[in-house]
Inverse folding.
C-alpha cells in the first residue's frame, strides 16, 4: 500500500495481507488515537506465529521508519503485561519496571524528566487485543503524549474506548484475512489435486505439485521427501523448480522420524532460523538452522504426508527473510494437501508396481511363445524324416507281421506327434502380434458346409447328427479364410468329439448388426464351471474321465481364442455338465465382397 504522509501500513506482498480495506480501518483508529487522545505515535501489530508484527502505524516519520518492520516476541509482551499497572484494556509499565521490551520496541529520543508525572522514554503503554476466546491476536501500543505527561483519568477513559474499537476492527480484519486465505489455499489445493489425478510417475507428479505448492503458498521453495517404500527401495527427495536440495543424511532421518510422529497426531511444525526447535536436540536444531542458512530459508513449514494410517513422506515449504511467518490456516491447508499427496504417492507406487508386473508378464509370455515356436520347429524336421522312412519301409514286400504291427504303432505315434507340432506352430503363429492379419471378406456358408462334410465320418462314428441352420443370403465375415476355417473347425470337431450318441450338433449362422455370429451347440458331456475357467489355456484338458477318453492336445480352443481375438471378435461358452455346451463366436462382418 502506498504510504501517505503520517501513516504507514505494512507491505501487502511481504506479509500476505491482501486486504488494504482492513488495514485502512486500523490505520484510522491509530490516527484517531493520535488526534483525539493526544499522542504522537500509535501502532497496531498483529500476532503471526509467535511474534507481533507491526501492521498499521500512525505518527512521525522517524517513528514509522523505526517501527516499519518491527517484530516483537509475544512472550516479551506477556512478561511486560505481568508487571504492568492494570488500566483496563491498557496496561501501563512505568520506565522503572519495563524490561526487555526496550530492546525490541522503539524508544523515543526525549530527555527523561525528574517529575514523576512526566512521560519517560522507557514508559510502556500497551493494550493487548484479544479474540473471543481470550487469545492475544494483536497489540495497540502508544507512545509520546503531546502533553509530555503520563495520561490522566480523562485520557485513560478515552484510550479505553479506542482500544475496544481497535480490537473490534482487528478481529474483523483477521476474519476477512482468514476467509481470503481459505479461498486462496482452497484454490491451490484444487489445482494440486487436479494435477495429481493424472497417472504420472512419482517424480513427475511431485515436481508438478511442487511448483503449484510454491506458488499457492507463497513459498520460496518446496520439497517432498518420500520414505523407502516397498518399490522405491530408498527415500527420495523431490524439489520444485529444479533447485537441488541436498539434505544432510542426519536430517533425512530426523525428518522421517518427525513426520511419522506428526502424522500420527495430524500436526505440523514451523521451524524458524533463530528459534530452537523444542522437540529436537540442540545438535539437531543446530544442523537444521545451518541447513536453512545454506538454502537461505528463514522459516520452514514441515508437514507429514500420508494416507490412512500410513505416513509416506513429508512436505517442506520454505520462506525467505522478510516473508510472513506461517499461519495456522496455511499449515492446515498444507496438511490437507499432505493427505492428497499421500494418496497419490501410494497410487503411483501401486501403478508403478503393476506396470512393472505387466512388463514382466509380457516378457514371460513372449519368451513362452518363442520357446514353443523353436521347439515345434526343431521337432518338425526329424519327424518329417521319420514319417518319410516309415512310408518307405511300409512299401517293402519282405516284412514280417510283427514288424508291420510295430511300424503301424510307430506311425500312429508319429502322426499324433505331428498333430501336436502342427498345433504348436499354429498357436505360435496366431499368438504372435508381429504376424499381421490379412483380412478379406470370407463367405461363411461354404466354410461351414465343408467343415460339416469333413466331420461326417467322425459324426457317424459317434452317432451324432449334424444340423446346419444358415440364412439364404450370403454371410460375409471379415478375416483370414484359413484361420477362420481352423477356428470354426476346432469348435465343430469338439462338439462332435464330446457329443453323446443319439444327440445332435447344431451350427447356426446369423448376422447381428455389424457382426456375424456362429453358434455351435451340442448335447454332449458338458463342461464344469471350474473347467470353463481354464478352457482357453494352452494344453488344458479336462479331468472329466469322459473327456479324457477322447484324443486331444488341449491346444484347440487356445488357438480358437487367439484367432478370434486377433480378428477383433469374441468367443463365449455356455455349458452345463452332463447336458451340453454352446460355443458362440462373434466376428466382424464384411459389408460386401
Ligand atoms: P482338445 O484337443 O483336448 O479337445 P481343446 O482345447 O479343443 O483341446 O479343448 C480343451 C478341453 O475342453 C477338452 O479337453 C475338453 O475337456 C473340453 N471341451 C472342449 N469342447 C468341448 C465340448 N464341446 N464339450 C465338452 N467339453 C469340451
Amino acid at each position: 500500500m502506498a504510504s501517505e504522509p503520517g501513516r504507514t501500513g505494512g507491505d501487502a506482498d511481504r506479509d500476505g495481507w491482501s486486504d488494504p480495506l482492513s488495514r485502512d480501518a486500523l490505520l484510522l483508529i491509530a490516527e484517531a488515537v493520535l488526534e483525539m487522545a493526544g499522542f504522537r505515535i500509535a501502532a497496531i501489530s498483529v500476532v503471526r506465529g509467535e511474534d507481533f508484527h507491526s501492521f498499521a502505524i500512525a505518527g512521525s516519520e522517524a517513528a514509522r521508519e523505526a517501527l516499519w518492520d518491527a517484530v516483537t516476541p509475544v512472550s516479551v509482551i506477556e512478561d511486560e503485561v505481568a508487571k504492568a499497572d492494570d488500566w483496563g484494556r491498557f496496561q501501563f509499565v512505568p520506565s522503572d519496571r519495563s524490561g526487555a521490551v526496550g530492546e525490541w520496541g522503539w524508544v523515543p529520543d526525549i530527555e527523561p524528566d525528574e517529575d514523576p508525572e512526566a512521560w519517560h522514554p522507557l514508559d510502556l503503554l500497551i493494550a493487548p487485543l484479544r479474540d473471543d476466546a481470550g487469545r492475544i491476536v494483536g497489540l495497540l501500543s502508544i507512545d509520546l503524549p503531546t502533553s509530555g505527561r503520563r495520561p490522566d483519568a480523562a485520557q485513560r477513559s478515552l484510550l479505553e474506548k479506542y482500544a475496544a474499537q481497535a480490537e473490534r476492527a482487528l478481529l474483523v480484519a483477521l476474519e476477512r484475512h482468514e476467509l481470503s486465505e481459505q479461498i486462496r489455499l482452497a484454490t491451490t489445493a484444487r489445482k494440486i489435486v487436479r494435477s495429481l489425478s493424472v497417472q504420472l510417475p512419482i517424480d513427475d507428479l511431485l515436481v508438478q505439485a511442487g511448483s503449484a505448492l510454491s506458488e499457492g503458498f507463497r513459498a520460496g521453495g518446496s520439497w517432498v521427501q518420500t520414505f523407502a517404500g516397498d518399490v522405491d527401495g530408498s527415500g527420495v527427495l523431490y524439489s520444485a523448480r529444479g533447485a537441488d536440495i541436498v539434505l544432510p543424511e542426519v536430517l533425512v532421518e530426523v525428518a522421517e522420524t518427525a513426520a511419522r510422529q506428526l502424522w500420527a497426531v495430524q500436526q505440523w511444525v514451523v521451524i524458524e532460523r533463530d528459534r530452537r526447535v523444542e522437540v529436537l536436540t540442540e545438535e539437531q536444531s543446530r544442523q537444521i538452522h545451518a541447513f536453512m542458512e545454506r538454502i537461505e530459508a528463514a522459516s520452514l513449514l514441515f508437514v507429514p504426508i500420508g494416507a490412512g494410517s500410513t505416513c509416506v513422506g513429508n512436505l517442506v515449504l520454505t520462506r525467505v527473510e522478510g516473508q510472513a511467518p506461517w499461519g495456522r490456516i496455511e499449515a492446515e491447508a498444507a496438511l490437507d494437501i499432505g493427505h492428497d499427496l499421500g494418496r497419490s504417492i501410494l497410487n503411483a507406487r501401486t501403478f508403478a508396481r503393476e506396470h512393472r508386473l505387466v512388463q514382466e508378464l509380457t516378457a514371460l509370455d513372449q519368451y513362452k511363445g518363442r520357446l514353443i515356436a523353436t521347439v515345434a520347429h526343431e521337432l518338425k524336421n526329424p519327424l518329417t524324416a521319420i514319417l518319410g522312412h516309415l512310408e518307405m519301409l511300409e512299401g517293402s514286400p519282405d516284412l514280417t507281421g510283427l514288424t508291420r504291427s510295430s511300424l503301424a504303432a510307430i506311425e500312429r505315434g508319429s502322426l499324433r506327434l505331428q498333430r501336436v507340432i502342427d498345433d504348436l506352430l499354429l498357436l505360435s503363429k496366431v499368438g504372435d502380434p508381429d504376424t499381421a492379419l490379412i483380412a478379406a471378406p470370407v463367405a461363411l456358408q461354404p466354410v461351414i458346409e465343408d467343415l460339416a462334410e469333413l466331420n461326417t465320418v467322425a459324426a457317424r462314428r459317434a452317432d451324432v447328427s449334424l444340423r446346419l441352420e444358415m440364412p439364404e443370403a450370403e454371410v460375409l465375415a471379415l478375416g483370414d479364410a484359413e484361420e477362420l476355417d481352423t477356428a470354426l473347425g476346432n469348435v465343430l470337431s469338439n462338439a462332435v468329439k464330446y457329443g453323446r450318441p443319439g444327440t445332435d450338433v447344431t451350427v447356426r449362422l446369423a448376422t447381428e448388426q455389424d457382426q456375424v455370429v456362429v453358434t455351435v451347440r451340442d448335447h454332449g458331456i458338458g463342461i464344469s464351471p471350474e473347467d470353463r475357467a481354464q478352457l482357453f489355456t494352452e494344453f488344458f484338458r479336462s479331468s472329466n474321465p469322459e473327456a479324457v477318453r477322447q484324443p486331444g492336445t488341449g491346444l484347440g480352443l487356445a488357438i480358437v481364442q487367439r484367432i478370434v481375438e486377433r480378428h477383433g471378435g469374441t468367443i463365449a461358452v455356455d455349458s452345463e455338465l452332463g447336458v451340453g455346451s454352446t460355443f458362440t463366436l462373434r466376428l466382424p462382418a464384411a459389408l460386401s465382397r
